[in-house]
Amino acid sequence: MRKTFQTRRIAALGIGALALAALTGCSVDTGMGSSSGDGGEKTDGMGGDDTFTVAAFTAGYGTPAGKLSLDDFVEKAEAKGWDVTLYTSAFDYDKLGSDVQAAVAQGADAILAGFPDPRQIAPIVQAANDADIPIFSIDGGVEANDDFVIDVTYDQDAMAQQTIDALEEAMGGLEGKDVMVIGHDPHVGIHTRSNLALGIFEDSGANVVGGEIKQVLDPGTSRTEALNFVTDYLQSNPDGLDGVWAGWDDAALGAVQAIEETGEDDIYVTGVDALAQTTEKIAEGSPMYATASQDWIAVVDELIGTLEDYAASAELPDEPFVALEPHIVDPSNVDDFEPTLGVAE
Q1: Within its chain, how far is the Cα of 139 from the centroid?
Q2: Alpha-carbon distance 146 to 311, whole Å?
Q3: Residue 50: per-residue pLDDT
Q4: What ranges in the chain are assigned the alpha helix state H?
Q5: What is the dihedral of CA 57, 59, 65, 67, to 10 degrees?
Q6: 48 pLDDT exceeds 80?
């Protein structure tokens, strides 16, 4: 059974800066005994020794945002002297389940979930609950979830609306325009915002080509898959596309490449993440028109601080779900924007 945790600290993040708010709280009585093993209230999160052990996992290590943010987490955590093991897979949750359950059995003090699918981590959650080990999450869903003591993500409605507004601006309206929507249903956030986008386009009188979302099969090959979606469509429908809405930047960059290779100059693309390469494409006046920034490095920094609180005093967040406001990057402000995420070539 999950215990009740309280904390004195949670942060509301902004793009490029953190706005920190201090809350009051107390340490945790987990029933596992104190750090010295004499029973009673738990006074720190280090499991009775001087080493804070964190099991981190992600199924999305093959994506630019997933790799960059988890590598950043490991580097910063190890610099604090923590014992960190990162478990990865190509969206193979069976493998991750086995790996993280073994880490729990070996005495992990905390778990960091990077971009997890809440629908597929039940074995990990059960093992963590049984051992009273908290799970801290980056982008672990679109609403509060008791599986996580904290989940920091970005607001899906805002991302869908901001990117569609940008595409509307670029195309000179939505009604009657032919738009391709590219998504990936296994990722809860992308699934949510791409379906929100589909509904907005349909309600606005745009024609979603094919009548449905084009589904990328593997985010690790999303650039190539999106390139093929757009290339194949334009070969069959010359002059039949006004815009491409992609649920994340790597797919958007594939769409841009396809458009550039066809020589079209009046098809516009939007994405989500604000990768460095995306902003370069926006700045050079390519078909890449806008992206919604998700500053995962700032999120990593905040979760490092929250984990540090737990290691020192067994304090955990009162707020289990923090939905941050994204920031649109387009030709009007791209020169002043400093991306925190690169891109894997």
Answers
A1: 4
A2: 21
A3: 85
A4: 64-79, 93-105, 122-130, 156-171, 188-203, 222-236, 249-262, 276-283, 296-313
A5: 60
A6: no
Backbone angles phi, psi at 88, to 5 degrees: -130, 160
Region for residue 37 given its phi and psi (left: phi exceeds 0; alpha: psi -120 to 50; beta: otherwise): left
Q: Please give the structure tokens belonging to residue 165.
A: 């507004």
Give pLDDT tens digits for 249-293.
999 999 999 999 999 989 999 999 999 999 999 999 999 999 999
Residue where the block lists tokens 């014992």: 83
The Cα 55–Cα 78 span in angstroms is 12
Confirm if 270 and 263 have CB atoms less than 8 A apart. no
The yes-or-no verdict on residue 62 having pLDDT over 90 is no
23: left (phi over 0), alpha (psi -120 to 50) or beta: beta
Would you say how long the chain is, in residues? 345
Is the pLDDT at 343 greater than 50, yes or no?
A: yes
Supply 57's token pair.
């996992």
Query: Which residue segments constitute the domains of the chain, with CATH numbers given?
Result: 9-139+295-325 (3.40.50.2300), 156-293 (3.40.50.2300)
Task: Supply φ then ψ for residue 112, to 5 degrees.
Answer: -110, 115
- In order of 145, 201, 281, 283, 338, the CA distances from 335 in angstroms are 38, 29, 11, 7, 8
Judge whether 286 and 260 are in contact, CB under 8 Å.
Answer: yes
